[in-house]
Amino acid sequence: MGKSSMVIFEPEETKHLVYLKAALYETLRLYPSAPIERKTVATTDIMPSGHEVHTGDTILISLYSMARMEGVWGKDCRDYNPHRWLSEDGNKLVYVPSHKFLSFNSGPRMCPGKDIAVVQMKTVVAAVVWNFDMEVVEGQSIQPKLSCTLQMKNGLMMILKKREI
Ligand code: HEM
To answer: Residue 68's closest CA among 19, 105, 32, 18?
Structure first.
């Protein structure tokens, strides 16, 4: 294979990359692309929490905050830990209900593109990691910018070097 050639993967080839999927879910847990969900109450009711809600009320759910709640994700909720998604032997993903991991929403309006999105992310990350050595530029201020979609305030500078493969 020539030095300048890039290796890319078919979606099928990334099927067994369980740790990569766990890492992507963990990234989307802490940094959900849509950090806030908005729901409108259809019928006056009492929530399991005991809160009374009325028809037409707007409920805002901060996924960004939920990811940082010990009551939802445990003591290490603020840590980036892909292992929380994996079985003990690391070979399988554990079941996590969508009402806990809300990054693709939950219920009838759940993101229908979830599986496509995961396959795309896996093929892209696998290709980038395979083809390049990567280094994060030191001394950056890496901060989230909260908006309708979660962005990076100052971006992220990386040094990429083509690997000779
Ligand atoms: C990492 C990537 C993605 C994330 C995090 C994501 C997340 C979401 C979320 C949170 C919603 C619900 C928004 C709401 O409150 O109404 C949603 C809806 C939707 N997504 Fe995605 N999405 C992703 C990729 C995709 C892709 C690749 C497609 C198409 C191939 C897609 C198609 C849709 C559609 C059509 C809806 C509207 C569903 C409905 O309202 O019934 N998404 N997505």
So the answer is: 32
